[in-house]
Design brief:
- The structure is a single chain.
- This protein has two domains: 149 residues, Rossmann fold, CATH 3.40.50.720; 144 residues, N-(1-d-carboxylethyl)-l-norvaline Dehydrogenase, domain 2 (Orthogonal Bundle), CATH 1.10.1040.
- The protein has 14 helices and seven strands.
- A seven-stranded mixed beta sheet has the order 2-1-3-4-5-6-7, sandwiched between helices.
- Bound molecules: 1,4-dihydronicotinamide adenine dinucleotide and 1,3-dihydroxyacetonephosphate (13P).
Length: 309
């Protein structure tokens, strides 16, 4: 099978795009990385490509799609989306946007607990490739799997994508929890309550409940909410230390998608009448309306309720 994928093009030269390219190179595949800064002709690069992996941040998804639409993409090319975010204007996920633009191409979502820096060090990690086109997901599984990178299949691309997207909001909350030194009980309560919030939103947007308990859901929630390597966690942590958002973003390496996701998710929640208490406090905090301490207080003083309802 591997020999059939002669060429992979990764779009997005950030740390995640580079990491995915390295994983494919470890399997001796011919990989090109294209980013808007390199000035190379994307049309020439994808001329004989069989797989395109999009690893741009959410703000780059629509521009990337528009660029590829001008290039009359061959419908046999497998498109893989590795972005974790919600498009601000349409509130849609990257899977929706890619599917709408290229309905004839096999489309795969790649998402999981994948802190790029750890993967680049060769530390063991696992991820999920999800698609309605099983053959395409199986090919991706073979192309990227290796000794230190284990790739699982899933047939729920939307749920796989939403788990990775929604946990970024929770990672900001988790960073606040650690930055304020609220303790292990608080952290455990936060992460455990974060999961049903993710499931509530994720199933409403079309994901399967089961998916959110897997690697791309709970797995990524645990990784991102517990690691200083996560940019989203760092945003929350540093807000708790008293830094302002512009100060934090000025020094942050790469994108913290949870900031945009929180804003978009609040609009979705209002429109669909979804109960999202943690997201709501993260939103008020990011807007500068409340302090981290008040966000915690507001979460604790809500009406008492049953654990499962
Ligand atoms: N860094 C990580 O550990 C992981 C990141 N991700 C996700 O992958 C995506 C990219 O993450 P990183 O590489 O870390 O971010 P990054 O900030 O390092 O890179 C973002 C990339 O998107 C491109 N981009 C941004 N706006 C664009 C535009 N308008 N047109 C074309 N390209 C544009 C940038 O040039 C850059 O190549 C994010 O959605 C992130 O959540 C997923 C798994 C792991
Ligand atoms: O998605 C990630 C790990 O799975 C990366 O998290 P950050 O974007 O918060 O760095």
């Amino acid at each position: 099978m591997l020999e059939n994928a002669k060429k992979i093009t990764v779009i997005g030269g950030g740390i995640w795009g580079q990491t995915l390219a390295n994983l494919a190179r470890r399997n001796h595949l011919a990989v090109r990385v294209w980013s808007r800064h390199i000035g190379e002709d994307l049309g020439a690069i994808i001329a004989d490509t069989e797989v395109i992996i999009s690893a741009v941040s959410i703000k780059g998804v629509v521009p990337t799609i528009e660029k590829l639409q001008q290039l009359q993409l061959n419908s046999r090319i497998i498109i893989v989306t590795a972005t974790k975010g919600l498009e601000p204007i349409t509130t849609r996920t990257p899977f929706h946007l890619w599917n709408q633009a290229f309905p004839a191409n096999p489309l795969v979502v790649l998402s999981g607990p994948n802190l790029a820096k750890e993967i680049n060090q060769g530390l063991p990690a696992a991820t999920v490739v999800a698609s309605y086109v099983q053959k395409a997901a199986i090919l991706l599984q073979k192309l990227l799997s290796g000794e230190s990178f284990r790739v699982y299949l899933n047939s729920d691309p939307l749920g796989t994508e939403l788990g990775g997207t929604l946990k970024n909001v929770m990672a900001i909350a988790s960073g606040v929890c650690d930055g304020l030194q609220l303790g292990t009980n608080a952290k455990s309560a936060l992460l455990t309550r974060a999961l049903p919030e993710i499931v509530r939103v994720g199933t409403c947007l079309g994901g399967c409940q089961e998916t959110f308990f897997g690697l791309s859901g709970l797995g990524d929630l645990l990784a991102t909410c517990n690691s200083p390597l996560s940019r989203n966690y760092q945003v929350g942590y540093q807000l708790a230390l008293g830094l302002s958002l512009p100060e934090i973003l000025g020094k942050l390496e790469g994108t913290a998608e949870g900031i945009n996701t929180t804003e978009v998710l609040m609009r979705i929640a209002q429109e669909k009448n979804l109960y999202v208490p943690i997201t709501c406090q993260v939103d008020r905090l990011l807007r500068g309306e409340i302090s981290p301490q008040v966000a915690v207080y507001e979460l604790m003083r809500r009406d008492l309720k049953a654990e499962f309802d």
